[in-house]
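Blinded run. Sample ID left blank on purpose so nobody reads anything into the name before looking at the predicted structure. Input follows.
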Amino acid sequence: MFEHLGKRAVAVAVTILLLVTSLSGCSAFSESAAPAPEKAKITVSALPTIDLAPLWLAQEGGYFEAEGLQVALKPANSGQPPYEEMNSGKVDMVLSSYVPFILSGSTRTQNIRLVADGSSLDKYSSAIVTVPGSPVQRVVDLPGKRIAVVGNNTVAHLLTRSVMVDHGVDDDGVDWVTMRLEDVAAALNEKRVDAAYLPEPFLTQAVLSSRVTIVASLSSGASVNFPLTGYAATADWVSANPNTLAAFRRALAAASRDIADRSKFEPIVVNHLKVSTDAAALMSLPTFSSVVNPQRLQRVSDLLQAMQVTPERFDVNTIIAR
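Blinded prediction complete.
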């Protein structure tokens, strides 16, 4: 009998405790609201590329709104970060390749901070490509040939050179042809170039429509899962807007996770990049992330040094916002 009463007493006590905790709102597991952003409306400058997919999802899926933010996109004029617009406050953040950010940090020409990750290579999200009849069919065929890239010392140029190094071939005699990605497939078929760098969605589109074939994935050897793009802001902006940055990061982290769902990814790229539904279904996604990993990012700086773009090793920790 006493044992039975003891169990009833414990049950009643637990019930009362849970009721009081619920009514008082003092649960150890309750979360306080995040501080309001200092700046509720921000502008991000970027080229309309696949790397923007998580941001587009965050805009259209209410992720930013849930964090008290309105994020506008301003189309960039080139792949180079618009530092003048950043310094003047016309834009708050920029999404770009990591290469120019690290170059500006290493030369101390700009006081920028990397605030969020964007994308990294996945197995076939970028590749060296060719067409039947080209003198290039394998990586060992590349020396002395005409290779299309978007520019010298860009991530496309550096990663193509890295793949060649991994295969033990010399890139000294290569004729690097600067070309827009939109023009690559035609240039290959017209034999104006022998091989080219292509990322998604241009890669899948060219494979479907222009007889383009893959020579090698850029995500191989030393460049496996190589960091490609990230978001940056000025150091002054980061210092003045810690709550805004935290809200942006939370929304981007959720969208970067969810964009891996192809039912979310494919409509986004069909709408914003104007690719066909067939191409969207076949595309290889880059790896999307939001947290800047110093160890991974150091690979970009080390590649710049290895390719003799920078004279010495630059520690990327000095330009990462914490």
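Unblinding after everyone has recorded impressions. DSSP finds 13 helices and eleven strands in the chain.
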